[in-house]
Amino acid sequence: MHTAGGAPAVEAVGLVKRYGRTTALNGLDLTVGQGTVTAVLGPNGAGKTTAVESCEGYRVPDAGRLRVLGLDPVADAAALRPRIGVMLQDDGVYPGVRAVEMLRHMARLHAHPLDVDDLVERLGLGACGRTPYRRLSGGQRRRLALALAVVGRPELVFLDEPTAGLDPQARHATWDLIRELRGDGVTVVLTTHHMEEAEELSDDVAIVDAGRVIAAGSPAELCRGGNADVLRFTGRPGLDLVSLRQALPAGSEAGEPSPGSYRITGDVDPRLLATVTAWCAQHGVLADRITTQRHTLEDVFLELTGKELRS
């Protein structure tokens, strides 16, 4: 895991949480470095929500050790609460309150809040500023929940599905805000169903399944740890694969899964592509339909869990 220095912002060791006969957390370990963005991913029922809610102090683990900004989220709740921001999935806002009125109230509770007018403009809340919460659309509620979570300049912010229901413009505005938070040294822990979002924003990713973190690292590290990237091309059947393999960079492999269809695995980069096209030219091969397929975070997720993220 990355860290900007100092003790981890979140450190969970061996967390266990049971609801009757159901084990939600089964020895979960999670470390979040200060000043980083960490995405917690997992299929429905994997335990990620329970893990995050335990960090927020809303759940009490049955066993294990948990420290958030060096404090116990339950025993030290009064000291911890002013230092963290929480974006709840159900938003936790009184139905009759007006959107910007609630945001200004929240800002007044903090010593050095963000500029409310700027936040309203950036997240596109101006048009619904005087609208009661119960009349807001799903996307507007998400944007307000995000604003409420960050307006107090928290040291650590938990964002639950921050772009769910947002249009592309609002999604990218949210991404920009998250990047700025990290640039200001804020630690961000987010859950998301959008793999692109996790790859785009995260320094680190923790994949949770069956109540445990089954893989953790940067998106690049996780993708390198799975199946290799693939380059495919078509040509005449029966090419000299021995010669092709000798020309390829170390760690690459070549095969002919079906006559005239060739598959090369390894680190697919400009060097590999140049090597393959040069080899084809030297051997009088007119390569056709050259395609590359990068190994993505979604590929890793499916390989590890065997489940769609939205299952």
UniProtKB/TrEMBL annotation:
Residues 10-235 form the ABC transporter domain. It comes from the Bacteria. GO terms for molecular function: ATP binding. PROSITE patterns: ABC_TRANSPORTER_1, ABC_TRANSPORTER_2. The keyword Cell inner membrane does not apply. SMART domains: AAA (SM00382). Keywords: Antibiotic resistance, ATP-binding, Nucleotide-binding, Transport. This is ABC transporter ATP-binding protein. It comes from Streptomyces litchfieldiae.
